[in-house]
Amino acid sequence: MSSDIQNSIPPILSSMVQLGPAIFLKDFPQAPQKHDKPLTIVLLFWMNAPLRPAAKYISEYGQLAPDARIIAIFTSASDFFIRNSDGAQRRRITPVLDALLSTAKDGDGGSLYVHAFSNGGCTTLRYLAVAYRDATGKPLPANAMLIDSAPGITSMSRAVKALSYSFPRFFLWRVLLSTAVWGWLLVLATLGWLSRRKHPSYFLREGLNDQSLIRGKVERCYVYSKEDDLIYWKDVEEHAGQARARGWNVSREVFEDSPHVGHMRTDPQRYWKIVARLLKIAMA
């Protein structure tokens, strides 16, 4: 397993098949029959998501949709800032693409539900959608989507803060790592300015609202909080408005006092009720 996510593996992940360094699969309990419409749940976790919190989401989804296949994708800081070329990202998500294509029969491939967390998960989702379109000539056929704490317009200060959650607690290490990250981000920003390349968050936000990448006119729910210190809530609402204008069926769920990707912990009953509604739509 990649050192980026190496730590004590929760039982639910130990029971899953590892398709790649940071990709886990819980396959269908029974092989789908020819005329079945099997449900695949794709969970794209936030950058440097710890395994134990992520496992709670996987376990709950397994209870809500016991007959579904679940694919969990983890994204590391290295995927953002080092292995960030289009080729490297394509290789990273190839096992997920192969799994989705493996059920593409009868011109359908079953139902697809997508849950993307933060800009990290949404960035991975965009790369997956591009790879799917390149392979099939069609947009990613999501039947319902939940976008959790995203998408935001990234600044360097927020990027450093996001990375700092995975820093060691020792003060001196945190200072040294923060300084190194600031320096690296300044280098990337300078190179982007010199090459006149648009900021990655632009491609992320545009990609999620591109009907050539993600199937349009389906249900999409944004879950966010005005207390989120990494993703500005107005950025989320702006993107939701653009999605509605471009044809998606958009709903918004604002949580009170919940931190970044912390809405499930803040109000689990409400959170899983939202998920259950979207799963029902995906399976309809």
Automatic annotation (TrEMBL):
This is Indole-diterpene biosynthesis protein PaxU. Pfam families: DUF829. It comes from the Eukaryota. InterPro entries: AB_hydrolase_fold (IPR029058), DUF829_TMEM53 (IPR008547). The keyword S-adenosyl-L-methionine does not apply. The chain crosses the membrane at residues 171-194. Keywords: Membrane, Transmembrane, Transmembrane helix.
